[in-house]
C-alpha cells in the first residue's frame, strides 16, 4: 500500500501526514433516491437512469476524480404498507421506476479499471447460492472490485413481493441474514482451494477434483449442497458493507462488515455509534481497524458563503415535502402515510421511532409535527459553504472517527462533478483525499489485502470442507 493510503481506522500522530478520507458516490438506479423533487431541475440527469450511458459517464467521472467506490442503494418495493398511497411514489419517481443495480455493475465493470462497485441486495430477494454465484461472477469481471451492502429489508410491500405476509420481525431478520451470509461464506471461502484450477491440457484436467468441495449446508432456512460453481474470484468474498443501526444491526455489522454506513446527526453522535460498533467488533474477535465507517452527507458548494446560501435556496425550492414524507414511511396502522400536520405525540408507527423522539426533543417552541421529521431528515446530513469551510467540517467528522464519506447527490452528474472540481482539490492540499489509486482489488486498496483477514468469521471455512469424500467425483 502506498503512503497515501494507510490502513483505515488507525489514528495518525499529529506531526505526520493526515490520513485521507475515503469517498463513495451514493447513488441508486432510479430517478429520485434521497433528495426528492430535485429531478425536476434542468440539470438533473438522473431522469435518464435507464440509459446505461448515464452510469458509464458517471463512473468515468468518478474514476477520474479518484472516488473509492460507486455505491448503489436498492429496495425491492415501496415504503409504507401495501395499502399506502403509492401514487406519491409514482408521481415523485421515488425509487420507482427503478432498475436492478447488480445487473448494471456488469456493464460498469468493463468500462472502469480502479473504482470499487458496490451493490445492495436484500437477504430475501434471492437465494444465497444464486446470489453468491452472481457476485463471484462480477468479482471476476471487475478484477476484484465488488462490494455487497447487506440489507435485511425495511418494507412490508417489498416483503410481499417475495411471498412474505409482511416485513419479518426485526430480530428474526438478522437471524435470517446470519444464515444467509454463512451460506455465502462457505461457498466463497471454503468450496474451492486456492490452487484448484490447474488448466492441465496434457493431463486432461481443468480443475483438481480433490480441491473442489461440496459445502453440505443444512440450516433453518437453507439447504445448499455445493460446490460453488465459480472458481475463486480475486477477492473471494466481496468487500462487505452494511448499515444496521439497532443493537442487533450493530452486532451483525460488528461481526461481518468491513464498511458501515451511518447517517449521524452530528460528529458526536457518529463518535458514539462508531465506538459502540468497534467495541462490539473487538468482542467478536476482530481488530478495531478491520471495520470502517462512512458518514452520508450532501454538499451545497459555493465560491462564497453567499453563493452557497443562494444555491441552497434553489435546492429548497425544488424539494418535495411529499417525497420526503413518503420516503420517511411514517404510516398509520392502516398503512396510510400520515398527513404532514399530524402532531408527533399522536403518532402510532413502528418506523423511525428513534428519530421522531429526537425531533420531538429538538423542537421546544411549538408542537412538533410529522412534517418536521421529513424536513429534519432532509436537512441534517447536508454541509453548506465554501470548499474550505466544507473541508473544515470534514475534518471534524474525521476527528470523530469517520473513515469516509458517502457523497449523497442532488443531481447526477453535477453534484459529483462539482465536488470533484471544487472540494477535492482543497482536501488534497490538506492530505484529506487521495490523488492516486493504490493498485489491486478494492479490498487491497482499502485494507491492504485481497482477502478477508483470519479474524473474520468467513475465514473459518477455509479448508473446512477439504475432506476427500466431499470432493467432486472425477468425471461428474
Ligand atoms: C446510509 C444508509 C444506506 C442504506 N441503504 C439501504 C438500501 O439501499 N436498501 C435497504 O433496504 N436499506 C438500506 N438502509 C437501511 C439499513 O439497511 C437498515 O435497515 C436501517 O439502517 C435500520 O437498521 P436496523 O435494521 O439495524 O434497525 C440504509 C441505511 C443507511 C443508514
Helix and strand sequence: EHEHHEHEHHEEEEEHEHEHHHHEHEHH
What strand line-up does the widest sheet have?
1-2-3-4-9-10-11-13
What general form does the structure show? globular
Mean pLDDT: 90
**What's the number of helices?**
15
What do we call the CATH homologous superfamily? Luciferase-like domain
Q: What is the helical fraction, as a range of percent?
A: 25-40%
Distance between the termini: 43 Å
Q: Mind explaining what this structure looks like?
A:
The chain has 476 residues and is α/β, with parallel strands linked by helices. The strands form three sheets. The protein has an eight-stranded parallel β-barrel, surrounded by six helices. Strands 5-6 form a two-stranded antiparallel sheet. The chain has helices at 52-64, 87-92, 101-111, 128-141, 156-160, 170-190, 247-256, 267-283, 305-318, 321-328, 353-362, 370-379, 387-399, 414-429, 442-447; strands spanning 22-28, 69-73, 116-122, 146-151, 197-200, 205-207, 217-218, 223-224, 239-242, 259-262, 292-301, 382-385, 404-408. It has 15 helices and 13 strands. It has a single domain (22-304, 385-470), classed as TIM Barrel, CATH 3.20.20.30. Mean pLDDT is 90; it is low at 1-15 and 470-476. The protein is globular. 47% of the residues are buried. Helix 3 runs parallel beside helix 4 (128-141), helix 7 (247-256) crosses helix 8 and helix 13 packs across helix 14 (414-429). It is 37% helix and 13% strand. The chain binds flavin mononucleotide. Flavin mononucleotide is lined by residues 73-75, 120, 122, 151-154, 243-246, 249, 261, 263, 296, 406. InterPro entries: Diverse_substr_monoxygenases (IPR051260), Luciferase-like_dom (IPR011251), Luciferase-like_sf (IPR036661), NTA_MOA (IPR016215).
Amino acid at each position: 500500500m502506498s503512503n497515501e493510503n494507510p490502513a483505515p481506522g488507525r489514528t495518525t500522530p499529529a506531526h505526520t501526514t493526515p490520513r485521507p478520507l475515503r469517498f463513495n458516490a451514493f447513488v441508486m438506479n432510479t430517478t429520485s433516491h434521497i433528495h426528492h423533487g430535485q429531478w425536476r431541475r434542468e440539470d438533473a440527469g438522473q431522469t435518464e437512469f435507464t440509459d446505461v450511458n448515464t452510469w458509464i459517464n458517471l463512473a468515468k467521472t468518478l474514476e477520474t476524480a479518484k472516488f473509492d467506490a460507486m455505491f448503489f442503494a436498492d429496495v425491492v418495493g415501496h415504503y409504507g404498507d401495501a395499502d399506502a398511497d403509492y401514487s406519491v411514489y409514482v408521481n415523485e419517481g421515488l425509487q420507482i421506476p427503478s432498475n436492478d443495480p447488480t445487473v448494471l455493475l456488469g456493464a460498469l465493470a468493463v468500462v472502469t479499471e480502479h473504482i470499487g462497485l458496490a451493490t445492495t441486495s436484500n437477504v430475501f430477494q434471492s437465494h444465497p447460492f444464486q446470489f453468491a454465484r452472481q457476485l463471484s461472477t462480477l468479482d471476476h469481471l471487475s478484477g476484484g472490485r465488488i462490494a455487497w451492502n447487506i440489507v435485511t429489508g425495511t418494507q412490508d410491500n417489498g416483503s410481499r413481493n417475495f411471498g412474505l405476509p409482511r416485513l419479518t420481525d426485526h430480530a428474526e431478520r438478522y437471524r435470517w441474514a446470519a444464515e444467509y451470509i454463512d451460506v455465502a461464506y462457505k461457498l466463497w471461502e471454503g468450496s474451492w482451494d486456492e490452487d484448484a484450477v490447474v488448466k492441465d491440457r496434457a493431463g486432461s484436467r481443468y480443475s483438481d477434483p480433490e480441491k473442489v468441495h461440496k459445502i453440505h449446508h443444512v440450516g433453518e432456512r437453507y439447504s445448499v449442497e455445493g460446490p460453488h460453481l465459480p472458481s475463486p474470484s480475486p477477492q473471494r468474498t466481496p468487500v462487505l458493507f452494511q448499515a444496521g443501526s439497532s443493537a442487533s444491526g450493530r452486532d451483525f455489522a460488528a461481526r461481518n462488515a468491513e464498511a458501515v454506513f451511518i447517517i449521524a446527526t452530528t460528529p458526536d453522535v457518529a463518535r458514539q455509534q462508531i465506538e459502540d460498533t468497534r467495541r462490539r467488533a473487538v468482542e467478536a474477535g476482530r481488530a478495531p481497524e478491520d471495520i470502517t465507517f462512512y458518514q452520508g452527507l450532501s454538499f451545497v458548494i459555493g465560491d462564497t458563503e453567499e453563493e452557497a446560501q443562494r444555491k441552497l435556496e434553489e435546492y429548497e425550492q425544488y424539494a418535495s415535502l411529499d417525497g420526503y414524507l413518503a420516503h420517511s414511511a411514517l404510516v398509520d396502522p392502516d398503512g396510510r402515510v400520515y398527513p404532514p400536520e399530524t402532531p408527533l405525540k399522536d403518532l402510532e408507527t413502528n418506523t423511525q421511532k428513534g428519530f421522531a423522539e429526537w425531533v420531538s426533543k429538538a423542537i421546544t417552541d411549538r408542537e412538533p409535527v410529522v412534517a418536521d421529521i421529513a424536513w429534519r431528515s432532509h436537512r441534517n446530513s447536508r454541509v453548506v459553504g465554501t470548499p474550505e469551510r466544507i473541508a473544515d467540517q470534514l475534518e471534524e467528522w474525521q476527528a470523530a472517527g469517520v473513515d469516509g464519506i458517502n457523497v449523497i447527490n442532488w443531481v447526477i452528474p453535477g453534484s459529483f462533478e462539482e465536488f470533484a472540481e471544487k472540494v477535492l482539490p482543497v482536501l488534497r492540499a490538506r492530505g484529506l483525499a487521495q490523488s492516486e489509486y493504490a493498485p489491486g482489488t478494492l479490498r487491497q486498496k482499502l485494507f491492504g489485502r485481497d482477502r478477508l483477514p483470519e479474524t473474520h468469521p468467513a475465514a473459518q471455512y477455509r479448508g473446512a470442507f477439504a475432506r476427500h469424500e466431499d470432493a467432486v467425483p472425477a468425471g461428474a
